[in-house]
Design a protein that fits this description.
2 domains, two-stranded antiparallel ribbon, globular
Length: about 290
Amino acid sequence: MTKIPASGLVQLLAGPAPEVEAAGRLIIEAGLRGARSPFWDGVAWTQENADEMIRRIFENYDEGPGSFVEKLEKQLGGAEPGVVVLAAEFMALHLLSLSNVRGGTKRHRVEQVLSWTDAPTTIPREMEGAFDSRGAFNGGTGFNVRQWQHFVWLAKFVQHACSQSVEVRGRAIQEPELFAQLTEGVDHEPKGIKYSVEYLAWPSYFEPITSRNHRWRIRERYLKDIGGLSSGNDDPAISRDLAAIRKAHDAAAGTAVDWYLEPYLSEWSGSGKRTGGQKAWLVRQNQSGTPI
């Protein structure tokens, strides 16, 4: 991958979890620029590393007993440092946004993966702060049991990104709608990790909501507030409409609205007041999840 010169930090409006968002953006932007990894003095986002990741964890799928991390360690045995560091970045991207995983657990899992290489690695200060801060949503069991699928999606995303021109990747760093086009190029389920990565890259534009059904229902309920005409029904169009809807509602409320608090929850879900147990929903600082 040709390196994109750094042009200074892009000015972003913070979402509900600024430290988490900054750490996620650190990984994603370095990857798209072809710059050194935040964890290692080398480039992790390369076509070769992503191809090797796919070969080891997708083509060499392990159906046997053991946890995901136990299987991943075996699958990455003897891998080059860049592949192992890429796996650590994937672990961070999977965990950073989750409010139902303790900071110590997030830190341990990333450090555990990094320990599988003899190359010098480090956890940057920005990442340490993100581990200890509140996440953006409660992933629940469903999000966590899909770690393998999330790693595969992330590897395919790196493959796709590396196949694009320097111009395309550079524009994706600068424009959220172009970033959406980049993620849309990955034809792989599940979509939860895609929505999470989009949010981490552009928290001022993408909602930290990993349920497509919820995204659709919120968009449909409040479409009238932006003129009543949708941009379309694919993910980039829904994201575009949700961004416009949020802008209108935040301006009217004078603060960032929470789609999972009243009066909004009843309006779009028809389920009445939230009583807890939501999975992969937006979680604010005063909301609780069951820590792992």
